[in-house]
Write a structure and sequence with these properties.
28% of the residues lie in helices and 23% in strands. It has 87 residues and is α+β, with helices and mostly antiparallel strands. The radius of gyration is 14 Å and the shape is globular.
Length: 87
């Protein structure tokens, strides 16, 4: 995921965080292991002037293969370079 995001968005800042362990027990069959829940924090000039929903759609489209093949959830925090972030 990191390589795809870097190649597509040329971010100034990028964090791909595996949060799977935080979701243990949310479903009976899930023990929190593996790579199924991620948080993506990304700052890219490609997001300038782009509505938040369009940013999310662009990232979801880019990572469609991963979502089809086992990634259950993405928490996406996209920003343009001049926007304030909490992280």
């Amino acid at each position: 995921m990191t390589k795809k995001l870097r190649d597509a968005f040329e971010p100034q800042r990028l964090e791909v965080i595996n949060e799977s362990h935080l979701h243990a027990g949310h479903q009976e069959s899930f023990d929190g292991t593996g790579e199924t829940h991620f948080r993506i924090r990304i700052v890219s000039s490609r997001f300038a002037g782009m509505p938040r929903i369009a940013r999310h759609r662009a990232i979801n489209e880019l990572l469609g293969e991963e979502l089809r093949e086992g990634v259950h959830a993405l928490a996406i925090e996209p920003a343009a370079p001049d926007e304030k972030v909490r992280w």
